[in-house]
Amino acid sequence: MRIALLATVLALCLGGSAVASPAADTPCRGRALRGSFTAVPGSAGAGNVVYALRVRNAGAATCTLTGLPQLVLVDARHRPLPTHVTAAHPGQLTATLVRVAPGGWASASARFSPDVPGPGEGNRRLCEPTAHAVRVKAPGGGSALLPMRPATPVCEHGGMQLSAWVGGRHAPNT
Predict the structure, then answer these.
(1) Confidence (pTM)
(2) C or N terminus of the chain, fewer CB within 10 Å?
(3) CB of 57 within 8 A of CB of 104?
(4) Residues facing 33 on adjacent strands
(5) For residue 127, what are the CA distances in angstroms to 7, 62, 119, 134?
(6) Which domains does the chain carry?
(7) Cα–Cα–Cα angle for 55, 168, 102, nearest 5°?
(8) Strand, helix or coil at 5?
(9) 3-class secondary-structure state, position 155
(10) What is the distance between the alpha carbons of residues 58 and 25, in angstroms, rounded to a whole number?
(11) 72 near 53, Cβ under 8 Å?
């Protein structure tokens, strides 16, 4: 009898703590994200430029982003362009979970060359077609189409070095 009573008390205690634990984090969905991909003033130099990727949670619930942003450059008709994303600081990226409250922001920075052709791009004035927007893949499904200001080619076959997501409107290195 005492063992049964002890087992019941333990079950109630453990069940109570499970109820009190925080709700599971929900990955952001594409339809909830709004934002932009804009050049950082004064960042151009030595054949590179930095753009700030900013997303706002336009949804009704807090959602999460983590790791490197997954994105694809697109042209004026929203057709995909060559895109090759790498970590800005390889080997230094830790798994961070960025919680974005409704109306809140998350951001990342991207460094790339808009005018120096890479191997196989020849000696053209424009190394790749002009990108007009980026399609950001959301971890919870779907994607968000964000305008790129100003529109520009991304050389080296769309090569970009991106930082990990951070909370807030100001991207790292901006």
Answers:
(1) 0.83
(2) N
(3) yes
(4) 57
(5) 70, 40, 10, 18
(6) 25-167 (2.60.40.10)
(7) 60
(8) helix
(9) helix
(10) 17
(11) no
Tokens of 130: 């002009």
Looking at residue 39, its amino acid is A
* Distance linking the first and last C-alpha atoms of the chain: 66
Burial of 5 (C-beta count, 10 Å sphere; 0-12/13-18/19+): exposed
* Lowest-confidence segment of 11-20, 97-106, 156-165 by average pLDDT: 11-20
115-172 per-position pLDDT tens digit: 888 888 876 667 899 999 999 999 999 999 999 999 999 999 999 999 999 999 887 7
How many angstroms separate the Cα of 146 from the Cα of each of 1, 19, 38, 163? Answer: 65, 39, 10, 17
64-99 in b/e form (b: 16+ CB < 10 A) is: bbbbbbebbbbeeeeeebbbebeebeeeeeeeeebe
The two three-digit tokens of residue 163, written as one number: 């930082």
Q: Which residues make beta-bridge pairs with 39? A: 51
